[in-house]
Amino acid sequence: MTADTGRHTPRPGAAPLPRMILAQTALETRMLLRHGEQLLLTMIIPALLLALFSSVDLIDTGPGDRIDFLAPGVLALAVLATAFTGQAIATGYERRYGVLKRLGVSPLPRWALLLGKTGAVLVTLLLQAALLSVVALSLGWSPRGNPLAVVGLMLLGTAALSGLGLLMAGTLRAEATLAAANLLFVLLLFFGGVVVPLTEYPDGLRVALELLPVPALADGLREVLREGGWPEMADVAVLAGWSVLGLGLAARFFRWE
Fold first, then answer.
1. Rounded Cα gap, residues 254 and 34, in angstroms
2. Measured distance CA(35)–CA(40) in Å, rounded
3. What is the distance between the alpha carbons of residues 157 and 121, in angstroms, rounded to a whole number?
4. CA 41, CA 68: separation in Å to the nearest integer?
5. By three-state DSSP, how is residue 120 classified?
6. How many CB atoms lie within 10 A of CB 15?
């Protein structure tokens, strides 16, 4: 009997890069969704805020239904919660415990590891947007505008806030990242145009806030979803500028250990 040469010959080596990135994305997504605190931050709190502020007349949101003002703002808050706060805290503690250092010497390139984290953020945001849309529609939300404009704004906002989150996680101690990320989340909840219109603040403060990514994202989403138009170029420019700055600084100064 003639042996089939090579049939059982081992072929050691890494899996194809796309498969490794998809596997890392799936792993990061499962880890994020299994974490109780992260799930509370990314899913439950935005949904509760949407239901609370749309049902109770606590804040003057201007003309029109409150839900039409609040839904785009809470979508922006969801991006902040996942791309910035959640990712910064999780990555900061992975760095502290040496997880990133070990993954950095695996067959998966470091840039592909970060791409996997970004993929997990996008998957989570898709789930958030679906959940928040269902809640908002049940409360009487009537979205307008071009869906592609919404997707473009969400991607720009994700890039901007993800870059800043990775920059914080890769340069600060984990405890400092935890405190700073949570503090910024709370501050931007009230000063980011999410549930309180920026017109309620003094002119000087309002101008400064308009230069931040969360207010720009919330305002841009309202222009599309409430007014049925296109986002202001100023908001797009702010998001694009923070994307370049945040991702560039993260790539330059991120430390793996």
1. 26
2. 9
3. 12
4. 22
5. helix
6. 12
Entry field: residues in the chain: 257
How many CA atoms does the CB half-sphere of 134 hold within 13 Å? 6
In this prediction, the residues of the chain whose per-residue pLDDT falls under 70 are 1-15, 35-36, 104
Please check whether residue 88 is in contact with residue 121, taking contact to mean a CB–CB distance below 8 angstroms.
Answer: no
Per-residue exposure over 27-45, b if at least 16 CB sit within 10 Å of its own CB, e if not: ebbeebeeeeebeebbbeb
pLDDT of the residue at 10: 56
Work out the burial of residue 78: count CB atoms within 10 Å of its CB; fewer than 13 is exposed, 13-18 middle, 19 or more buried: buried
Q: Which DSSP letter does residue 139 get? A: T
Check residue 195 and give its pLDDT.
87
Question: Measured at the alpha carbon of residue 104, what is the angle toward residues 102 and 110, in degrees to the nearest 5?
Answer: 155
Closest by CA to 118, choosing from 41, 257, 22, 255, is: 22
State phi, psi for 63 to the nearest 5 degrees.
-65, 155
- pTM, two decimals, is 0.87
Residue with tokens 């959640």: 86
Residue type, 244: V
pLDDT of residue 1: 47
CA pair distance 28, 90, nearest whole angstrom: 10
97 burial (CB, 10 Å; 0-12 / 13-18 / 19+) is: exposed
In this structure, the number of other CB atoms found within 10 A of the CB of residue 194 comes to 26
Neighbour tally for 48: CB within 10 Å: 13
Token representation of residue 143 = 């979205």
- The predicted-structure confidence for 63-99, as pLDDT tens digits, reads as follows 778 899 999 999 999 999 999 998 898 888 888 888 7
Give how far the C-alpha of residue 196 lies from the chain's centroid of Cα atoms, to the nearest Å. Answer: 20
